[in-house]
Amino acid sequence: MLTALGSLLFSSKGVMVKIAFAHGAAPLAVLGLRMAFALPIFMAIAWREDRVAVTPLPRMERLRAMGCGLIGYHLASWLDFEGLRLISVALERMVLYAYPTAVILISALVFKQRISRMTMAAMALAYVGVAVACGGEAHAGPGAWLGIVLVGASAGSYAVFIVASSRAMRALGSMRFMANAMCGACAAVLAHASLACSASDLRVDGTVWALGVALALLGTVAPALLCAEGLKRAGPQAFAVISSVGPVCTVALAWAFLDEQPRPVQLIGMALTMGACLALALTGSAPVKANASVPIEPDQPRESRRCATAASSPAANGASR
Q: Who contacts 51 (Cβ-Cβ below 8 Å, separation ≥6)?
């Protein structure tokens, strides 16, 4: 129940962002509002984790966690929001959902892991599904392809974060790491917005402010904590199955609130990608993502199991995510 609720809340992120865009808000301004309201909460979580920790957190470890947050929660989120301007919510979710395949590829390069034929076949199927889904939106023009590239870059950035953060997460624990990483990301986003946003970008109406609060509380903090607790109670495989409702929820919410009716070819692509990523998770071949902005449990041997520790860290999308 906790996992399903967390996945549903994460699924609402793209819909709320699209509504904010419809009210004239710029992507970086929306992301800045989201992080501004989330920052005090993550600072409180970081303070609490420091209080209950057995050992104090070395300065370099804190800085390392915050640096990882710049990749996984600042860069990835910014690219995601920019891409979301140009493509539908459902397609954005589908591209992000395939990010575990990038984790496998990066892990194979960094840790010299061998990729089995079954895993390669599932990865190929996931990419075919993404390609089919993207082809279903080709009618939207060249801007759609730019959006796909931006969201794909977001997924790649998040995959780099998962691999790069494994050591720091093992040392600090998932919640302590997540809180410090999010604090670093929130601060970086606010600095980025203050430098890059014009005065007109920062003048938004009350609806956008309300959406910023909702994105922080309902689209970031609450689902992250719910998914973390759900993962702890259900275990990685059950978690993977339950959280796979995320993309379906995204399509339903986008259809209900944005009138984004998916084409049949996009639904076929979604089914292929979801099936492939779910198969990777259930066979222990890859990490699975419940949404576009949050790490979920990777379940791999030896070095890639270090990415599994990262999976138990809540945070998002995020991602994405």
A: none
